[in-house]
Amino acid sequence: SHFLPLADAAKSIDNVEISIVCSCSEAREKLEAYGLKVIPLDFSRQSLAVYKLVKLITNLARILFREKPDIIHMISLKPIIAGGFAALVQPRAATIFHFTGGGFFSTSIEKKVRVLRGLFHKIVVLLMRRRKSWLILENPDDKDALMRYGRLPQDRISIFGGADVMPDHFQ
């Protein structure tokens, strides 16, 4: 995966165990061979069902309570929301919210999606009130969109280029 260099950098730190919580049945062996502790978690990124989100938050909170991580790095929309709430069981852990872009979620004009998008942005702004939180974005437009829903601590936001997809090339 394109996040393996991040795991490499973290593995270079002495006395650090890196765990990855994911629904990764096919990639599990590869990740373990890479030296990562894999904690399987069954979830669907597509489902918008509230009861499934609550179940995901509960399962993640159990994992975080058991593992007691120092840093929790959540990548993409649903893991940010679920992981952000679940991370409340580990108040001393630093949280990193890594928003990789919203895709359909960011561009859809469907009313249901627009409402959920606004709710997502508001939740991220609220989660960033945590003193030991950091927001990584891959697009400056995402920062602008989030800031419409509240103040963000500018000193805890980084913008890194994403996977170098060039949308203009595909128009």
Describe this structure in words.
With 171 residues, the chain is α/β, with parallel strands linked by helices. The chain contains 7 helices and 6 strands. The strands form 2 sheets. The chain has a 4-stranded parallel beta sheet, covered by helices on one side. Strands 1-2 form a two-stranded parallel sheet. Helix 3 packs across helix 4 (77-86) and helix 4 packs across helix 6. The protein is globular, with a radius of gyration of 16 Å. The model has no long low-confidence stretch (mean pLDDT 85).
Q: Work out the helix count.
A: 7
| Strands, total number | 6
What ranges have pLDDT less than 50 throughout 5 or more consecutive residues? none
Helix content: 40-55%
Strand percent estimate: 15-25%
Can you tell me the overall shape? globular
Adjacency order of strands in the biggest sheet? 3-4-5-6
- What is the arithmetic mean of pLDDT? 85
What is the rounded distance between the termini? 27 Å
Structural class: alpha/beta
Quick one: biggest sheet? 4 strands, parallel
Quaternary class: single chain
Topology as H/E string? Answer: HEHEHEHEHHEHE
How large is the radius of gyration?
Answer: 16 Å
